[in-house]
Specification:
CATH architecture of the largest domain: 3-Layer(aba) Sandwich
Order of helices and strands: HHEEHEHEEHEHHHHEE
Shape: elongated
Number of domains: 2
Distance between the termini: 30 Å
CATH topology of the largest domain: Trna Endonuclease, Chain: A, domain 1
Helix content: 25-40%
Largest sheet: 4 strands, mixed
Radius of gyration: 22 Å
Number of strands: 8
Number of helices: 9
CATH class of the largest domain: Alpha Beta
């Protein structure tokens, strides 16, 4: 990212960077800071009411997997760590604290701070996303260890996620489903409610019918081309329809490969 001076760091905190929750949260680093590096991307979320900023495919896919979980109530990306603490940890480890190219101590950030509802309390989890290839670099490992110790001292479970934690098919499926987190706007208030009900009714009677054949049947019942897949993606994203995300999705799959429910439970830990 761009080098920051002490005054610029102070200004970011004054702007509310790294503070707030849900729609009011502002990451310490956003896509403007790293748009020319890595795989910068943005992902909107209805749950948090804002657009999230990521700088690698690993971060993006980890976020999409987490934000779907019913018990996950908020995800705060690029969360800043207190420099006094990271400086102290670096000194204890006998390593140099990370610095910007101008020599100012870096404000280290955690890629994903995840808040999970657990009964009457909210539990925090910290996640760092890295490519496996980056883990052969000794300096990268030192920085990760500073981050791990930082969260350990706060009683927060920290873990590292890489591209090996989910299959390529799963990454594609998550992005595909997320595209229908919200169904397209339509002038009729009950338009999608009616189509979801029709999909559920016909799906329950489909037995081993292929999705392709179910789509043809629904088109005969008034669905427009592509609407059945929109409904399927929407229900799958919200945990009401499940299938093996580690297998490349195929429109010729029989409906028996899917489970249609009213809700789903997953674990963030």
């Amino acid at each position: 990212m761009a080098d920051l001076t002490e005054k610029q760091i102070e200004r970011r905190y004054a702007e509310g960077r790294g503070q707030g929750e849900l729609s009011s949260y502002r990451p310490f680093i956003d896509h403007h800071d790293l748009s020319s590096l890595g795989r910068a991307s943005r992902a909107p979320s209805r749950k948090t009411g804002r657009t999230h900023h990521f700088f690698s495919d690993v971060e993006t896919s980890a976020f999409l997997e987490l934000i779907r979980m019913p018990e996950v109530v908020d995800v705060r990306e690029q969360f800043p760590l207190d420099r006094e603490d990271t400086r102290a940890i670096a000194a204890e480890m006998g390593v140099d604290h990370p610095k910007y190219r101008n020599g100012v101590d870096t404000v280290m950030t955690t890629d994903l701070l995840v808040l999970v509802s657990a009964g009457s309390e909210t539990i925090r989890y910290a996640r760092a996303g890295k490519r496996v290839a980056d883990l052969s670099d000794a300096r990268t490992l030192e920085k990760l260890e500073i981050e791990r110790r930082y969260w350990q001292r706060r009683g927060v479970h920290w873990s590292l996620v890489t591209e090996l934690d989910r299959s390529d098919a799963c990454v594609v499926a998550l992005s595909w489903m997320h595209g229908m987190e919200e169904l397209p706007e339509n002038g009729h208030p009950a338009y999608w409610t009616d189509r979801i009900a029709a999909f559920r009714a016909e799906f329950a009677k489909a037995r081993d019918m292929s999705l392709e054949d179910l789509d043809r049947k629904l088109v005969k019942h008034g669905f427009q081309a592509g609407e059945m897949l929109n409904v399927l993606r929407h229900l799958a994203w919200h945990g009401q329809l499940s299938f093996d995300l580690d297998q490349e999705f195929n429109f010729r799959w029989p409906t028996s490969r899917f489970v249609l429910t009213s809700s789903a439970r997953r674990s963030a830990a």
